[in-house]
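INFO batch 0412 | record 1 of 1 | parsing
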Amino acid sequence: MSRLTPLLPLCLSLLACAMEPDDPVFLSGTALEADGTPWRGGPLLLTRPLPLPTSPTSSPRMRFETWAEVTPDADGLFLHRLTARDTGADDIRRPIPWADDNAFQLLLPPRADGGRDFYAFELHRDSDVPPLRQWSSNVRSVEATGGVRLAWDAMPSIVDVPEPHYFVEARGPTGRAWLIRTAQQEEPWLGPELLEDFTDGHAHVQAFSAGARVWVHTSLYFFAVHDAPPFRLPVEGRVPISRGVDCRGGTRIVSPCPFTDGRLEAVNVPGPPQALATELTLVLPQPARPRQVVIRGASVVGPPGQVFHVEGSVDGSDWRLLAKSAVLPDPTSGPYLDETNSDSGGQEYYVRLELPVNVPEVREVRVWFGVPTPGGGPPGFKQSIRTLREVSLFTAP
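INFO prediction complete | emitting tokens
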């Protein structure tokens, strides 16, 4: 045996010597029940991402598959042995089936109610994950004007895990119908106009944090993700008067319109040749008096501080401002998605705007975004809109 062998651990920790493929890499941590006691619910799941086929112009997609089980002891502690080959720590390039050689998820076992608790992480050498604790979310609703407000119990504080953001999402069969990013002490509102008839009738609440544990030559970068069980909302969706109407980008009528079909797919907004659209107009079959406008998934090209504008016209020539929003907060990316192993990307605006009771009847409604000039003056120009999911008009209930 080489006289240097006893010094190998010191070499690895202080000098970051290259590891041999079969050298151990340890993953350690603690699993906890919702009340903070040691985990008693069986082995944890360690999963890895397999890449999915995509088109050359699409973002990478993946699917996590179970790779190993990790069994905590009676105190909830675990120590799981991997190898440098398993995690890419030997720095040897080789074909791998995984989307990334050091990306994993560590999950508490699946719950019958649909809730999930896990870390998604990338590790470099030995890593100790923060305690993995089940979230007892207790999502609930209280009646509010025109809909309901949601509340839930906060995710308990965990060492080295930043305070989470909470995402509230409503989903349709082909995409996101609504998204709210909020703090635990806030009570976000959901109503029939946000659900329409294309959601599953549930609110999906997620507590999400991003953090890191880094020391000398080891590192662990992680997302802490806790999905509450889907919460059945006690309100029914409402179909807008704009469902299925034609729309216009610039001067070109689009029929059928992909922004009024209820499909929720992110679609490029038609505009001038070789340019992005700056507005979208909905053309109603007959005059109506809208009271609410809901825009979903607007990807706007421009600086922060956007204001959403709604204008109306009887003939498409003379336009009148019906309402405008306050300055909108910067759009958030969204909750964690397995298929991207990150937040859900694509910063999009989701805006609900109530119109005054005295708005006139109009046959065309035009929506656009702009940034006020210094001092609060009107925008100097309209911002380009890259994609939209849906625009909906509602009359009074």
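INFO post-check: The radius of gyration is 25 Å.
INFO record closed
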